[in-house]
# Entry
Amino acid sequence: MKITYYGQNTLAIEIGGATVIVDPFITQNELSKDKVDIMDLKADYIFLTHAHFDHILDAEAIAKNTGAPIVGNFEIYQYYTDKGIEAIPLNQGGLRSFDFGKVKCVTAIHTSSFPDGSYGGNPSGFIFMGEEKNIYIAGDTSLTMDMKLIPKWAKIDLAILPIGDVVTMGAEDAVIASDFVECDKVLGVHYDALPFIKIDHAAAKKTFKDAGKELVLLGIGESLSV
Ligand code: NI
Ligand code: MN
# Structure
């Protein structure tokens, strides 16, 4: 499984012969808008963790360009279906099979509404289960005891956790989250893209190293494989 980072919580996951785009927010992200052309992105599916602008901004354009369906909770499914865009519902607690593998939708503790004010339902995290490896994408969330359930569903090989603090967990809580999900390898996301979530990269990495864990921070367009 190959994971490419495009800033904030935007990821491209190559899994089981498919490319999955998660939470596309590029054209208004100062860090990525000049480096990535959304029309160049391949997508077989677009997964949305919740409806905030910094997660859905480019979803409609990429869906129209690629024909990829949008996968999200029932409110997200309904929102895009009403716009005439193909969408697939996957709500918290649900496990769904796709042609590339299985995805379980799990709890995230956060808020969610669309930029136009319409209700976005409960925010989600996702466990992507490939043939050999599994990754957990927490989405925007606080630390929650619910994360202790994650290893009961899948052995996690990479945890993708927010570390920007203020509107999600920060690095210290993300260390505890990595204990809860029983995965010491963490890809940090949701930092630097907005003024109030700028972080000290070296300090965040030290927080993980001191706990015997690895925090990976990727540049825009950089990838890692699990
Ligand atoms: Ni959010
Ligand atoms: Mn966000």
